[in-house]
Records
---
Amino acid sequence: ALMIPIGSCCSEVSIRRAARFGRKAEEWRLDRRKSPRRFRVHASFTMPFASPEPGYASKQEKFSPRCTPKNSSDGPQSRDTPPKRDTGIANEKDWGISLLNENVNESGTNEDGSTWYRESGEDLGENGYRCRGTRMGGQCKDGSSEWKETWWEKSDWTGYKELGVEKSGRNAEGDSWWETWQEVLHQDEWSNLARIERSAQKQAKSGPENAGWFEKWWEKYDGKGWTEKGAHKYGRLNEQSWWEKWGEHYDGGSVVKWTDKWAETELGTKWGDKWEEKFFAGIGSRQGETWHVSSGGERMSPLI
């Protein structure tokens, strides 16, 4: 089974980059004294390539929906909590998700007036193309909270395989979120090498305060050991904004790693650091800088 090792994390007052791919954990803290509310987002999931077992063994209780009691009807429960930054990927069975083999089209209304729906089916095409998918969603009675999910699995006779998911939602507090990820296994047309490509995008916004974030991750591999990994991140919390970009490239012999991150305030103060590492045949080099620009435009940039 192919797993998706992507991850990142965001808590109430700090932005923390996990120690991924051998990186040292780093943490940026932000001043939250001007905002008594706290914005916290959370989600975790994983999808292997192995075909799931039929049936829908729901474990929705972990979502703690605000508008649907846990003991309501058998329909999918409301997911009214935004995803957490830098999540890992958990097993789909832990989410109670199954890409059903049969066609399903059902909906219902819970005791509290909230509604839900679930649809599942399969499409067939040329060259053994097969796509199985499941759509589900729901909303509270007054429409203040809503969530949607789409899961899919694609394959054909060439060995192409794809797994993907897209989620979105909003809650009564005004928080909104959207995320998607995809994993593809295919054979390159020119080199005939097997390739694996994984990608994810996530974003969330706080309704009651000026806060939000966006992330984009990708990983690419081929049968000869060529590897590329990277991420772009952006976030904002009241008067502060921050950005981060990093990448890794391995061609079977040499390795290049780089990072560029910076932050700024509405007053014009900016700071950040960037560096690059190169390794080949047991020899390596590292260069970079940290810098700071005051609100008056004065720049300090000592080399590291």
---
Amino acid sequence: MIFELDLLFDFCHLSLFLILVFPEKICNNRIVVKKSITQVLDRGLKYLPFIGACSVFFLFSALSIVAFIFSPLQREILGASQKTASGSTTVSLSIGIYRFTLFGYTSPEALVSLQGMGIVDETIANSQGYFEFNNRFSPFSPREACLTSRDQFGRLSAPVCLPPFPTRYDVRIGPVLMPPTLSFDKNDYFMGDEIVLSGQGIPNTDVDFSVFIDDKQSFVKYLTKLFSFPKPAYALTFPKFTTESDADGNFSLSIPSSNPDIYRLFAQSFFQKEISPKSNTLNVKILPIWMLIIKFLLFLFSLLKSHLLEFLILTQLFGIVVYFLRRYLKPYVIAHTRALALRAHYELLLKEHAIIPSRYSSQLTG
């Protein structure tokens, strides 16, 4: 850039010098000299200070160009620029604050959130379920932080809260095992339905399920055992169910539905001989068949409840229409109003009397 500016100034200086010394005009491909030698000298003496200044500037520019090209500093700068052009350098600087690194495992491609007092951060796990919060700033004082995981289907895991960690030096925390995520396709099932539980967790790990029958919430069993002794337990434990997640972290489990019960269950993952915290506890209801009628009636009631005012207005209108139909449009009423003559209606009276023989009957007998 400096070299181009010097050339521009030198060109301007040379052009000005030629105009002052050799003023000429080009006309019809020939040069016509109009100024005499005396006029040239007079003009040169008039602009002599300016010409001298331009000459000094030209000399200084030439010396600066030579010094810039052949100086060792320029060669070092050029060499450094050539070296750094082929590579990339990452510079990190922190003054007066410490950092922490937290890592763990969850389902693949899950969104892991870290929240606490003075800490808010997010990261995404890789295809093996590994996640890491690398070189993050520590809070000013030890605070509790909690981790949550959202899998690829939007299901949230139970939070995992970490105890306060040191903030006066750099620390590395892990591995943190996130609990699996669980879901049913619906809340209520009926006897004989196929109940399938699905979820996601750490890939290629064993998943254990703890299942309980909640007798206290079962209405039918509660009525039968209300006055029994001893009192029924809050929950009856099932044998543990175990399944294994695939390479993508997916797993599923079938639950029997032969009896009307209410199940409560949660899951835990085993990874590298360590067990994860338990997942969210889910409730599933297995209802008898006759509950279909009750649910249908409840559904109708919910519809009427949201439109109760409209239902009352329609009921009143229907009653008014029926009244007018029975009062003024009944067929007997119409015939009664259209009759030409009316007579009173008398009941038929039957009286006993003797049979008197007439002459016609005596003639027949004679």
---
Amino acid sequence: MSLFLAAPRAGSSSSSSSAGSSSSISAVAALSLSLRSLHLSASRSAAAKKGVKPQVKKKTAIKKTTSGPRGGGGGGGGAKGRRGGLDAAAARTNPFFVAPAPPKLPLLTPAQYAGAEERVGEAFAWSKCVRDLHTAGVMPKGISREFASQPTPRTILRPLSLSLFSSLDSLSGSGRTPSAPRMLVGPRGVGKSHVLLQCVAHALESGWIVLYIPRGIGMINSTSPFAYVASQQTYAQRALSQSVAANLASQVALGDVAVLDLPLETDLPRSSARELAAHLANHAAALSPSALAGGLHLLLLSLAAQTKTPMLLAIDDAQALYMRSAYKDADARPLEAWQLSLPRSLLSLLDSHKIQRGATLAALGLSTSEYRPPAALLRALGREELHGCNTGYTPLNAYSAVDATHEQHARAAGWKCVEVGNLQAREAKGMWDVKRMEGATWNGEFFSFFAAVCVGHGQKYGTLI
């Protein structure tokens, strides 16, 4: 190939000039293509000699974005990171979206479920007394989150709940001997806190005096200020004492309870237990730590000694009474639960069954690994297996550290275990129905749980839905 171009003649016409220029452009283009092909052939031959695979330009796929969320399921359409179906957030911002109406549920009151075994598994809305507890912050954290997320805060009636209601009714009569306290035990997540709160609601609706401790761990996790009281040899917890006194002062039944004539360091009103509770709640800042702790202890002893109105002592995460706390003294030594004022007052009520008319009900919490049930309590309950495989820790053995003082307190209380099992088929059906009425979004976890319940009871979906 010739690499030189012939120049046009000087005397040629304009047409011949334009033709010559176009021919020169095409010749230049042909030259560039020839040079490029020559370069590629040379590079390929060199790569073939070296054994290197020649580079090939990759093709980039152009992704088309959708105009909006698409329905119909499958793997396409919708927002980024979602697998089919409507994007819930986008659907609710749609101007045509209509939220489902909150389901109309019966209230959880004795008039609704008294002697009605056929209502087991039915969803009930929490009564006003429980909603007031939620407003006051006297509620377990998990159930409190449910209150915020559910259109109508509700619960499922269980057979165990009816059995405990019947036991409470039998203990409400006067002249009954003090009963042994009962501890709700079972695997994690079976609903022990729900059953305990249902019993609290039943007692409040029946006119009982209720001392409800929704988060027992809050007494020992070092989240409340404390001060040492040398005269009582205990560490007073001002904020916790004020909270308990305020909860008791809101109950009208305390107005008929007389205060015991026991000596106190500070003069406090004693016309009625409700007046004493109101004074402790409203003037806690003006009272000394010793006066506040001593006044609350006197109030609890007065409520336990009276026989006019039945009293329920309900404690969630009750293992907090029998373990080492997160508090430390001035020498950075950890404090035991019995060294703190509020746990000590509760332990004094449990010792020798000081509640003359009423009952004590507690729940063993397994939701936190830091405050799991201690070996001393499990050994006193005779439920050593709860320390092992169910909680993910080494089972009790001959070398397990057991605090003798805590074990003595647990045995002195005389706890009786009440087993809380998994949901039955009727209870799972009730949960399914109420969630369907609420228009809730189902996930794989709930479907797996519901299928396990059905298979465990020999049921099929068609017989429950």
